[in-house]
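Notebook, p. 212. Picked up where the previous page left off. The plan for this session was modest: take the two constructs that came back from the sequencing core last week, fold each one, and keep the raw output in the notebook itself so nobody has to go hunting through shared drives later. Recording the first one now, exactly as returned: residue sequence, then the structure token string.
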Amino acid sequence: MMGKWYELAVVSTCPHYMERKRENPVIVAMELQHVASENNFTKTASRLRNGTCTQMSKVIGLTNTPGRFFHHVTRLSADVDSFLVDSNYDEYAMMLQLSTEKPSGNLTTIVKLYSRTMDVRPAVLDDFKTLVKHHGMSDDAIIIQKNKDDCVSGEQVTKPITT
């Protein structure tokens, strides 16, 4: 899973997350780098926000289960378990994220489609839609993100943000 990926499609049970994604449905470029001396990796995501290309980095913890990762979102006080559901590693990856906000106990499901390029074969998108339905969400709700800027290609000046 290490290397460069593009987040092409998302869907979530969280209305606030979906609203934010609908307002700015741009492809997010991300780079995953393993930290050899530690049991984690770094995810650096680049995206256009308010007209400026920004980078956000977070440390993702590895677990003893292959394909399962963990991180905490401080802003929401949420623990997030991520599961690599399907991937051929050279072309696409489908990720399921389950989170619980504290202290409210709100549960959220997010399903994401990643690609090594800025598009996927129709069969991969069909498989993604099947996965979304399997997790109780409508494939009509899927947000297919667009390449609306040069941020994902790295051509704009970036402003780093660390979370």
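Okay, moving on. Second construct, recorded in the same format:
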Amino acid sequence: MLKLQVTGKTILSSIRCQRKMSTCSSYAFGPYKIDPREVFYATPLSYAMVNLRPLLPGHVLVCPRRLVPRFTDLTADETSDLWLTAQKVGSKLENFHNASSLTLAIQDGPQAGQTVPHVHIHILPRKGGDFEKNDEIYDALDDKEKELKQKLDLDKDRVDRGIQEMADEASQYRSLFDC
């Protein structure tokens, strides 16, 4: 009987989580509308979503809910929540992907490689040997991918994914979080 009650609580918690994620207000990433199925974690001030063109397995983005182009434009509460969300998401994804480290990066402004005018933190679970030279990950995040194509040849493997693939990934990640 106790096991049934615990299982019932787990099911109820899961239902609440799915309801919260599916009925929340819409998400935007700069000028782009984000399908709620791509979002796997959210707070009142931030959200985490899967990446359309991931560099590595588990490469996700954490964004403020408010459309804010530059990091310095965030409020203190948004800044705190954004980094606490990144910390929580990073920890879960590092374990999920059996990684040994994380890269967290912000490209703040066009000259820094920011292509979408909305603050976002890239979170990439890292494993030994995922890039020949460890710091090449930053070049790969940069807007100058065309220059790097010959050096890293990323574009052949980095293609836009469909909504179903992204929704499936987000669903897996959503299950990592307690609601």
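Notes on construct two before I forget. Residues 1-23, 143-155 have pLDDT under 50 and may be disordered.
Flagging for discussion at group meeting.
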